[in-house]
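Late entry, written up from scratch paper. The run itself happened at the end of the previous shift, but nothing got recorded in the book at the time, so transcribing now.
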Amino acid sequence: MHPYLLPFSIIAVVVALCVILAVLLIPQKTPDRTAALREMIDQYRVNDPSANESADSVMTRLRVSGAAHTATMLEKRGWNDRLRAGLTSAGMSLKPEEFVLLTVATALGGAIGLFLLLRASLPGAMLGLVIGAAVPILVMRVKASKREAQFVYELPDALGAIASSLSSGASLAQAFDAVASESSGAMQEELQRVIIQNRLGTSVPDALQETADRMNCVDLQMVVMAIRLQSSVGGNLSTLLKTVATTLRERVKMARHVRALSAEGRMSLWVLMALPVVVGAFSALTRPEYFQIFLTTVPGMMMLIIGSVMMLLGYLWARAIVNVEI
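Output as recorded:
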């Protein structure tokens, strides 16, 4: 058995366990209006310390106390709103303090797992700590990017349905309510959030602006600008939304076309990034005496670090080339 086969296998198992743990512990955001309304009201609720005294188990008290201290720390550092927006954009029902505690738990689990599996190896513990901390963040970002892409693709059809509802005599709020009841996924959740914010006193353009900022959607910002202009200078909002929907539909079509044309470049990027890693792993497994120089000598470690930095810079440069803004 090659000496590097067991460590690589252990690292792969730990990474898989961290991914499974993050996927299982991070729930999906349900499209329930009651849950969305409860989440908004919880932002203005004051935590009552006496309410936690009735907890039965010690673990419950520790979890509640840890969540309270973590929420206080996030609020003092100004990270609470940003992390809440990221979780909402990803469609996760976790609170910011719960996500931080989950990240800490997966990081400690990965560190302890690799530390024990690699026979009390401190570098293995550091590697497990980094892997465990990165997995929840990567899951959140992947979910957010997929949800934002789905929202952008569904936006033109939703605007067309809203324009049709306005043409039939419905108000703007009623049109949003009707389209939200017929939509699904990210579009339904965000439209329901707009409706709830409007019923709590926020105007529809302001609620849409918050949604555009949360979803990082430039197209929705164009819609907000069109609605504000119509409310200030007048005009037919239904016709205006139909025109905007047609424009956004063409933008989505062009974006898909550009993505199809750049698919070869993106595939080349992933192949070029994976090639050194695959070749290095193959060399470590087949000829460990050749690969050992990168781990046991100072020049070898320097070459490994410099090569990793150059790969990262090459990835950033190539990604800037293949990602074309529309």
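Residues 26-31, 48-56 have pLDDT under 50 and may be disordered.
(Scratch paper discarded after transcription.)
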